[in-house]
Amino acid sequence: MISSCGNIVFFGGAGVSTESGIPDFRSAEGLFRQQYPYPPETILSRDFFDARTRDFFDFYREKMIYLDARPGKAHIKLAELEKSGRLKTVITQNIDGLHQKAGSKNVLELHGSVHRNICRECLKVYDAAYIFKSKGIPVCICGGQIKPDVVLYGEPLDSPVCETAMRYIEKADMLIVGGTSLAVYPAAGFISCYRGNKLILINKTPTPYDHAASHIINDSIGEVLEDIVV
């Protein structure tokens, strides 16, 4: 199917990066199953960020920044598919930047990236290493507070990024969805924009869109994509 398509779009989630050692949220080993003074979804909310900023950054440094993570099999194969000209874009819910590290050029980050951190005063941008090495609440050289360029619970997605993602999905002749339970909205709802008949779902567990898929593969996204010959 891939060899017969020239306009492929990939839509991925946390399962793409768990194979690189980055935990997801909802699996048995995910962040939502671990014990913290506050639920992770509370800590990663805009209200919590504003009210308890120091506690937010303590959690953020420990659980959201993985400077040593390396691209997995899925990241590498998707970069190869893009280089071949068949894959037009990667749309990701992840914030780890591993698609870019693997070599993908056209990546739409629905939830932002830990690698961009912006001063709320002068808009100077800092990398993830700066935040990771900082203490307490990270501060810009201008004295302003720095905020990660990630979408927190309670914040809207970036409209231009969303509109671009939906246009790619709508025009795709093949949509591969992998490593996501499609349980996080509004991002998961983008799948309904697809108009073609080659919707491939690759996930270890069922998703709400299984009924619409032409092929369902309940397996590791890395293992499945690795077998593709570009």
Tell me the number of helical segments per DSSP (H or I, 4 or more residues long): 9
Strand content: 15-25%
Instruction: Kindly report the name of the CATH homologous superfamily of the largest domain.
Output: TPP-binding domain
In the CATH hierarchy, the third-tier topology of the largest domain is known as Rossmann fold
How widely separated are the two ends?
Answer: 12 Å
By DSSP, the count of extended strands is 9
CATH architecture of the largest domain: 3-Layer(aba) Sandwich
Please list the strands of the largest sheet in the order they lie side by side.
3-2-1-7-8-9
SSE topology string:
EHHHHHEHEEEHEHEEEH
pLDDT under 50 segments (min length 5)? none
Helix content: 25-40%
**Structural class, please?**
alpha/beta
| Total individual domains | 2
Gross morphology is elongated
Main beta-sheet strand count, sense and barrel state: 6 strands, parallel
CATH top level assignment of the largest domain: Alpha Beta
What does the average pLDDT come to?
92
Radius of gyration: 18 Å
Please tell me about this protein's structure.
This protein is of the alpha/beta class. It folds into 2 domains: 1-21 and 71-111 and 156-230, Rossmann fold, CATH 3.40.50.1220; 23-65 and 113-150, 2-Layer Sandwich (SIR2/SIRT2 'Small Domain'). It contains 9 helices and 9 strands. Helix 6 (98-102) links the parallel strand 2 (87-92) and strand 3. The longest helix has 13 residues, at 159-171.
